[in-house]
Every structure is written in structure tokens, then in C-alpha cells.
Amino acid sequence: MNDSRSPQPNPSAPAHPADLRASGLPAAVLWDMDGTLVDTEPYWMAEEHLLVSEFGGTWSDEHAHNLIGNALIDSAHYIQEHGGVTLPAEEIIDRLTTGVVRRIAVEVPWRPGARELLTELNELGVPCALVTMSYREMAEAIVGTLPGSFFRFLVTGDEVTRGKPHPEPYLKGAELLGLAPAQCVAIEDSLTGIASAEAAGVPVLAVQHLVPVPEGPGRTVVETLAGWSAKDLGQLLF
To answer: What is the pTM of this model?
Structure first.
């Protein structure tokens, strides 16, 4: 498996960006993970409910939805404030992550069409990077279940200074791939993730899931990745 600390080539060597664009393909795809590649949001919400109830607090779906796509440190502070959890923020993150990873070990809930599109991109030599606010432990648990090294780089929440909605995560993803942000396509589901990609100058395919996503310039909103092809993504570039 590849990561930003020790990059290695994909089994399918990435094609040259100019050749990809000439073929109607994106130069690269930057994938969000939670809610986009995999439907782990219910896992996070379940762990949040368990943690808050342990400290005698109450947790609502509204609170849980407010955390979708956020940097984990911001979510931990929110849980401290609204859930009455008195643990340090990093311990909250560790507790939640450990619980979600445990659930992933039982079942990885892939989003419709995600693995099929990822496989096609890999076969065509379109490089992909994962840009997630989950920590590396969580990202590696998900990516490790794939039958090959589909992501050239992982950009994770514990390895950026400023998380989504700041543009840093997507800027870093494009930089690691050696590309300008506008040459890439981001696949996102959360408003904070979309804001991050758009602030970085990356065209966005927004896969509406738990949170409604309004239309916007440079943004294409769909209900599912099922039926989407690599060439469909190429048509989203400016």
C-alpha cells in the first residue's frame, strides 16, 4: 500500500497527464473516503452515540450530521461542548477511530459504484489519491481491503495542518501527484469537503448522501456513482 511518506508506483503505471486529457480522461482523481468511497458515516455516528451516553449526555442525529466531513479535532471539540464528554480531544478521536476500525473489520460498507469506478481508473492509468479527514490508521484499514494499490497517496487528517473545509488537504493531494488542482477531479459527499476542494480550485463531483448538496459553479451533484465512468469524470474538467 502506498502513502505520502514513501510513494511507490501503482501496479498500473500512471499515464502522462497530457495523454490522459487527450483521451478525455482526468489527469487524476482525488477521492474523499467517509460517505463517498465507503458508507462509514453510520459507524461514526454509532460510536459518537456510545461515547456520549457513556458520559451521561444525549446525542442527536442533528449533532451527528453537523460533524460530517469535519476535521476530527473539530469534531472532538464539538463532542466535548455538546455531548458533555470530558476526555481530551485526542482521546476522543482515538476512541471513535478504534470503534469504527473495529466495525470495518467486520464489514466494509462500500458506496454504490465506487469500487467499479476506482478499478476502471486504475486500469486506465489515471492516478488517484485519497483525501480524507480520517486518520491514517482508519484510511489504511479501508484501503488495505482493496485487491491492489489503487491509491498512489493518502492525505489524512492527522497529517495536515488545517483540515477541511480549508483547501490544504486538496492542495496537498494535487501537489503529491505533481499536478495543478484544476487538472484533477474531486469526488466528495460533504459540504465541508466540497468547500475544501472548491477552495483549492478542484472541480467537484458531489455524491449526495446524508446531507443535501446544492448546485454550484464548478460542481456537479449526483445521487450515486453507479454508472459513472472515467470519461464521465473527464468531462467535468474546466
So the answer is: 0.83
